[in-house]
Design a protein that fits this description.
Largest sheet: 2 strands, antiparallel
Structural class: mainly alpha
Helix content: 40-55%
Strand order of the largest sheet: 1-2
Shape: globular
Number of helices: 39
């Protein structure tokens, strides 16, 4: 099979190159290992497989390596040794790589998708590499029989150990990295649950989140100081965080395209997408993150191998992740007749062994499917709020087209966002480190705790599931713990300040993990980011909001202080049906006779913060990362210009040697050197070029097909959005996609275009609420999904997943999850009484859809002119754009040269943007979230860092999944059958007896009168 895609053939030269062979001259512990996979009798014991095996080189030009299992020992290849080398273009490195002892630079990220701003030095406890080195064991010749016996043993236990291109120093750094970092990125605002799904990423080992050490080049003087004793490998990534998390090798013998991978991917796509959609219509809720899939699928993969594999199974060979059935071709039909049909089925199901590449594919499928589709929110708004009758065909076409269009932008932007080494995508690094950690099966003591992660996970999972029956079923007062209002239930001020439903939540206490983790798990959020969030909460929501509310600013005291609804001038919830025609178009005369739209004070402040956050994100990124982004942009453009140059060069001279045992290597490793640290590509890009790339025509056909479906949807159905409106939405996405992607890839900040799309559509197509929702869906979700897909392409890039297979995995998971969510949504419409109303059972009030519905009223029905035009009530909010744009500049000017200044920790995009969760979130969701974050990510992290590093991510995943399972069981087994209809006592009623639950306003409107201006 060719080592390069067809597009590369015209630029490549074929030379007979030599495979990697063993040597005892290097100090690496792995120096004398055979070149085929290292197979050990005890697969759980430590091996020396984390060091480099390389032949001496006599030139500076390098070529990538292509690896196959030995044909001499396991599979009778027909071609000769020289033909094999010429066909697969084998080459080797010139030096054994060593990692720098300079502090690792780990990009941190806040928990709300507004990203990291700098890097943090990490000082792992690393011994001197000289003290670790020892003489390698002598190389051994391995006979065909012994090799096959060991191979069968390896497949039986499901463990394949391979040599990795790093020294013991790199091994310890990667181990330290995987154990000491953890975190999550959660997109700001209510759109976070369906845009950028929560993913593990490098956490806040942060002394300074805007450290100058975050320079893209990673050019630290300490690297030079240690160069003599511990150099970076010449072909590895120039970025310390990438080197610490991702192996610079590719084991091409691993299985990927197997029934096990497809079954688990489909299973988790169905379970995750349906569960998250189910929870998205509930308050309080929980989001099932892909981290849970990453953890839970691993024992299932091992169980699959344990149940289906046998010691006498024939050996297997995989090329590009696909099984090559050479044994059957050699033995003909005789081998098949020896086994029954059930035996052949078992062998087919038992292909390969569970490994990190299959694990990565399942995680990618979970990542693209776990976030509920934004189109389902549009369907909820149309059916439940606008009372439109939409058929199942419309629902499927809208959902599929909006979910899949993002692939086009991700695929067409691969040259800019995926291939350059500078596009590191910090959010993918922890995932890559977790794969390594899980498949090593390590269990080191942590502050005296010796329990394994798995046992810890299941204990917490069972405890969390069992405990949820208290706040979720038997005593809901533990969830809505507005205990202070119990002593004065009818006092409006007490309810405003200490309430947890319509109040500011000044008493941060609840016993329900669903309330604590509603805006994202606090265990996976960096503490410095949480402090920015809580700072914004205190200043804006706990100080400014009460002052403005009791001063009746914007007539706010006639409404609840906090609510997800909008109101008319009588203090009642706005009835949008009164200002729409029968065709769902804005009726100006009816609007003039009814009322202006009025917002609660927290809603007003939330919009102002979103305006300021959007502007501050651009300014903040320009100030702190503008130079880095400019460098990466130039590098990406230069790579596009240099696509015509030969991708790889063979070694100019090389000794004609073979491995002592005649085996050929099983690890593909690039051997190119860097002219400087900002060179165009790294080892991962060169290793990936051996795989056939997904043709650009696949993405173009996807775009044409999905755009045609979208045009059919907007023209055929009563949406009132012309076909050129759809193209305008896609055009906005296309123009902003690469800049947004570069910012995300470099800084881990996601710049949402949700509000931009709403405002543009409201200005171009005023008075069309459904058109506004659909416009936003095609514009915003194409961008958000595309960024998510690009991140997954980068993860596949790091894990060496063949691009064509990754395309199929992503596409299949998206289709499966879209169909699943439509089916679950329609089932809920028919079977959940009172859904999307305040009277809905078990809290299925559709809070997120309600917020988006309000947005469609504001920007789609009434339009931006009514809010920001002359004499408009909320015109002053326009100034928030200017405030947000200018505010980061003085902070940057003061803190850019003061590394220890606390000003450097002030992150205005996080401070402004995170509070856009209010509404539907309440003050309680933020305050108790911050308290838990402080306990774990400050106190425990500083006092028991080993325990924190080992168990925090596992604890979060166990609490989230245990809660999710508890909610499902409580609803379907107790509430839905009606068994709890007559269950009532003090613990089920006390929190609803008062103004907090009833959302009382401070001032009331007398009957027959109204507040606000007389004309509008």
């Amino acid at each position: 099979m060719d080592a390069h895609s067809d597009s590369d053939r015209g630029h490549l030269q074929s030379f007979p190159l030599r495979p990697i062979y063993n040597t005892t001259t290097t100090t690496s512990n792995c120096s004398a290992l055979p070149a085929y996979p290292v197979l050990v009798e005890n697969p759980t014991s430590p091996t020396s497989s984390d060091t480099n095996v390389a032949a001496p080189s006599f030139a500076s030009t390098e070529a990538p390596t292509r690896v196959f299992p030995s044909s001499d020992t396991s599979h009778a290849y027909d071609h000769t040794h020289t033909d094999y080398e010429a066909k697969h273009n084998l080459a080797v490195d010139s030096r054994g790589p060593m990692m720098s002892k300079a502090p690792l630079l780990i990009r941190s990220s806040p928990g709300f998708g507004t990203g990291s701003y700098g890097a943090a030095p990490v000082h792992p406890d690393i011994k001197d590499s000289d003290s670790d080195s020892g003489s390698g064991s002598p190389s051994r010749r391995v006979s065909t029989e012994s090799y096959r016996a060991r191979r069968r043993h390896s497949l039986d236990v499901g463990h394949l150990t391979t040599c990795r291109a790093s020294t013991s120093s790199l091994s310890q750094r990667r181990k330290s990295q995987s154990e000491e970092i953890g975190g999550s990125t959660v997109a700001g605002g209510v759109e976070g649950r369906f845009s950028i799904s929560e993913r593990p990423l490098t956490n806040d080992l942060v002394a300074d989140p805007k450290s100058d050490a975050s320079s893209i080049g990673d050019e630290d003087n300490s690297d030079v100081a240690n160069e003599a004793s511990d150099q970076d490998p010449p072909d590895n990534s120039p970025y310390a965080q990438v080197r610490a998390s991702v192996s610079p090798t590719d084991n091409t013998s691993l299985s990927i395209n197997t029934p096990r991978m497809w079954t688990l991917s489909t299973l988790f796509s169905i379970l995750g997408s349906s569960t998250n959609l189910f929870f998205s219509l509930r308050y309080p809720s929980v989001s099932i993150t892909p981290v849970i899939a990453l953890l839970l699928v691993h024992p299932l993969g091992l169980l699959w191998d344990y149940l289906l594999k046998r010691p006498d199974d024939p050996p297997e060979e995989f090329v590009d992740g696909v099984r090559i059935d050479r044994q059957a071709s050699l033995n003909g039909s005789a081998a098949r007749k020896e086994r029954s049909r059930a035996g052949r089925l078992r062998l087919w199901l038992a292909q390969g062994s569970w490994n990190e590449k299959e694990h990565s594919c399942v995680y990618v499928s979970s990542n693209v499917s776990f976030g509920f589709a934004f189109a389902t929110d549009v369907i909820v708004e149309q059916t439940q709020f606008y009372k439109q009758d939409v058929g199942i065909v419309y629902q499927l076409l809208l959902t599929l087209s909006t979910q899949i269009l993002g692939y086009t932008f991700a695929g067409l932007a691969r040259r800019f966002l995926v291939r350059p080494a500078g596009m590191i995508w910090p959010g993918t690094l922890m995932s890559a480190a977790m794969f390594t950690t899980l498949h090593k099966e390590e269990n080191k003591p942590a502050n005296g705790w010796r329990i394994s992660r798995w046992k810890f996970f299941f204990i917490i999972w069972i405890a969390g599931f069992a405990f949820y029956f208290l706040p979720g079923l038997l005593m809901p007062a533990l969830s809505y713990f507005n205990v202070i209002t119990w002593f004065a239930p009818d006092n409006v001020v007490v309810a405003n300040l200490f309430g947890v439903v319509s109040g500011l939540g000044l008493f941060p206490l609840t016993f329900d993990w669903a309330q604590i983790a509603y805006i994202g798990s606090p265990l996976l959020t960096p503490f410095w980011a949480a402090m920015n969030v809580i700072g914004g909460l205190v200043i804006v929501m706990w100080i400014i909001a009460p002052i403005a509310y009791y001063s009746n600013v914007f007539y706010s005291s006639y409404m609840p202080i906090l609510s997800a609804s909008v109101f008319d001038n009588t203090g009642k919830i706005y009835d949008v049906s009164k200002i729409l025609t029968k065709d769902f178009v804005f009726d100006r005369e009816a609007y003039s006779n009814y009322s202006r739209v009025f917002l609660p004070i927290t809603y007003v402040l939330s919009y102002g913060l979103q305006f300021a956050g959007l502007a501050s994100l651009l300014t903040h990124t320009t100030c702190w990362h503008g130079k880095d982004i400019y460098v990466q942009w130039k590098r990406s453009l230069k790579e596009v210009e240099e696509e015509s140059r030969p991708a790889y060069q063979p070694l100019q001279s090389e000794i004609d040697r073979t491995t002592p045992n005649g085996d050929r290597p099983s690890i593909a490793m690039s051997s190119s050197t860097y002219d400087n640290i900002l060179s165009n590509e790294d080892v991962h890009n060169r290793l990936m070029r051996r795989y056939k790339d997904a043709p650009i025509t696949w993405y173009l056909l996807t775009f044409i097909t999905m755009s045609a479906i979208g045009i059919f949807v907007v023209e055929y159905y009563p949406i009132h959005l012309p076909w050129y409106g759809l193209l305008l939405a896609l055009g906005i996405c296309a123009v902003l996609f690469i800049p947004i992607g570069i910012v995300m890839a470099v800084t881990n900040q996601h710049s949402s275009i949700y509000l931009i799309c709403q405002l543009i559509c409201g200005a171009v197509f005023p008075g069309r609420p459904v058109a506004n929702m659909v416009f936003v869906t095609y514009g915003y979700i194409s961008s958000a999904q595309g960024i998510k897909f690009a991140a997954d392409l980068k993860l596949g890039h790091y894990m060496k997943i063949p691009p064509r297979l990754l395309f199929l995995v992503q596409m299949s998971a998206t289709i499966v999850s879209s169909v699943t969510q439509i089916l679950v949504l329609n089932w809920m419409f028919r079977n959940v009484p009172g859904i999307c109303t305040p009277q809905a059972i078990n809290g299925f009030t559709c809070p997120i859809a309600r917020v988006h519905f309000n947005g469609s009223i504001l920007w789609g029905v009434v339009g931006p002119a009514e809010f920001f035009g002359p004499n408009a009530t909320y015109r002053v909010l326009v100034w928030c754009f200017a405030i947000g744009a200018l505010a980061p500049i003085p902070l940057w000017l003061y803190g850019r040269n003061k590394r220890t200044s606390i000003v450097r920790k002030i992150n205005l995009p996080v401070l402004f943007g995170s509070l856009s969760w209010i509404p539907p979130a309440t003050g309680l969701n933020f305050s108790v979230w911050a308290v838990v974050c402080y306990i774990f990510n400050c106190l425990i992290k500083n006092r028991a860092s080993a325990w924190w590093a080992k168990y925090t991510m596992t604890l979060s995943a166990a609490l989230d999944s245990g809660l999710a399972f508890g909610i499902v069981i409580v609803f379907f087994c107790f509430i839905y059958p009606g068994w709890m209809d007559n269950f009532s006592w003090w613990g089920t009623d006390v929190y609803r007896n008062g103004c907090d639950w009833q959302a009382c306003s401070y001032n009331t409107v007398p009957n027959g009168s109204r507040f606000g201006p007389d004309t509008w």
